[in-house]
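TL;DR need structure tokens for one chain.
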Amino acid sequence: MQTLMDGAVTEALRGGHDEEVRLFVAACAERMAPLFVGLRAGMPGREADLDLYVESVRDLWFADRPVAHAAERVRLLERIPELQPNEEGVTDVADTYAFFAALCLRYALLAHGSGNADHAVSCGHAALTAMGMLDQNVAGAGFLTDEQRLQSLALSGDISGLWEASVMAGRERLRAVLDRLPRR
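>> reply
TL;DR here they are.
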């Protein structure tokens, strides 16, 4: 079975400094953010969840220091509906991608707070899994390949344009998912 994480990315994370790990997870979370925020915006009672998500992603970009209250943010994030056990599983398109975005942020916060490379690998893997699923459901899409490229870029040492590329990739992902939703 082929692994989604590029071996060089995994090794770079495991051999990297805390700041490199933090930058990697910030970029992953940024790319996944529209899938949570865009798919949950306007839902009654979700304002606090949206604020938590947006504030956390913003704070992840301060790669020179751990996110304040990261453990508390993880606890709050773990209480959101997307990360609650569900006997029926997740089958709805919007719920599926919001779940992966929430999972990605959870691992990003854990990695950012600790510098733990295993959490960073899990963060990257959550993003790659979601993009692989999106590729399977959108004809001719290349979201998985793009995510792999952007993960490598985050660890390349030349991070100019990483934030902008992450924002654009996130928007493209949201558009693709929205196109898959039933029209109301």
